[in-house]
Amino acid sequence: MRAALTLAARGLGRTWPNPAVGCVLVRDGAVIGRGWTQPGGRPHAETEALARARSLSGGAEGATAYVTLEPCNHYGRTPPCALALVEAKVARVVVACQDPDPRVAGGGLTRLRDVGIEVVTGVCEAEALALNEGFFNRITLGRPLVTLKVASTLDGRIATATGESQWITGPTARAWGHRLRAGHDAILVGIGTALADDPELTCRLPGLEDRSPVRVVLDSSLRLPPTAKLATGAGRIPTWVVTGPSPDPARAAALTALGVEVIPVAGANGQVDPAAAMAALASRGITRVLVEGGASIAGALLGAGLVDRLEWFRAASLIGGDGLPAVAGFGVEALAAVARFERTAVRSAGVDLAESYRRIPGKASV
């Protein structure tokens, strides 16, 4: 199953709105087929593994299928994977976790059991749930998984008082940041970052240039200029601007002409509502969002309880209290209201430190 999970991870950032699934077929102690969800969500992992088994071993009859997510049980652009496994005459199916999608939700397992196939569930379940947390969030919460990425000094500063920030962390940490982009469906910044840095927000690691995610800007007043790199490159890489409910028609038309999708959402006091923005992304199929914005967007998302994971890169340097903080204030007045996370990993990233965190369930901020 861990081999299947490794295969599934290959699809992260490329399979939305579908989950990233892996499948390994084993017979007589030998692997006879492997598969993972292909870009765009089709073909599914089981279909890929069965095709390889037919090519290499003449089929999967009598085999055990290890699948990281319950096989689908509904007709879409392709027939159900549960039916494909039945028709392939596999003897046993081992599933890491069930699919909460109402079109599946146990139906795939029932189809398998009804024809006498042995079904085992819950193997490496925690790892499988973590892998596809974004897909599960979209189905059950109506929003994507949100990961906040920060590159700061030891004292939590992301720039000097004059705004100088390039580069606080070293080349290894920056490369790891690009790898994070490749594993997410969308990368999001606020309009402040878009105006100050004029970023491209692409993945520029050798060999992964085609893995650039959808670029999203939270821009309440639609201030992104048509000359910005994000706008001029919209014909090449999907670019969305999430703005207030009544965007200026002329500004919207200028961006739309370049290929930018302008997405109006609810807001208050001239600001886009963070929850409404995330719901809008989920409605378009996004399951995983990497946030690389500045202090304001970080504070807004933390204050709304929308940050699920942190990827924090720390340089062994100090700027002091006059530097710009990584997170703007978000209304915490008592320790009981702080956003709490648990550390899941610590690694050396060249001369810097890379720390990963998950939000503690039930410990969302205010």
Task: Give a structural overview.
The mean pLDDT is 93. The chain contains twelve helices and 18 strands. By secondary structure, it is an alpha/beta fold. Helix 3 packs parallel to helix 4 (107-114).
SSE diagram, text form:
Layout: H1 2-9, E1 22-27, E2 30-36, H2 45-57, E3 64-67, H3 81-87, E4 92-95, H4 107-114, E5 118-121, H5 125-131, H6 133-140, E6 145-152, E7 157-159, H7 171-182, E8 186-190, H8 191-197, E9 214-218, H9 229-232, E10 239-243, H10 249-256, E11 261-264, E12 267-268, E13 271-272, H11 274-283, E14 288-291, H12 295-303, E15 309-314, E16 324-325, E17 341-349, E18 352-359
Parallel strand pairs: 3-4, 4-5, 6-14, 6-15, 8-9, 8-14, 9-10, 10-11
Antiparallel strand pairs: 1-2, 1-3, 7-16, 12-13, 15-18, 17-18
Helix pairs in contact: 3-4
Cofactor: Zn(2+)
Pathway: Cofactor biosynthesis; riboflavin biosynthesis; 5-amino-6-(D-ribitylamino)uracil from GTP: step 2/4; Cofactor biosynthesis; riboflavin biosynthesis; 5-amino-6-(D-ribitylamino)uracil from GTP: step 3/4
Keywords: Hydrolase, Metal-binding, Multifunctional enzyme, NADP, Oxidoreductase, Riboflavin biosynthesis, Zinc
Task: Summarize this structure briefly.
The protein contains 12 helices and 18 strands. By secondary structure, it is α/β, with parallel strands linked by helices.
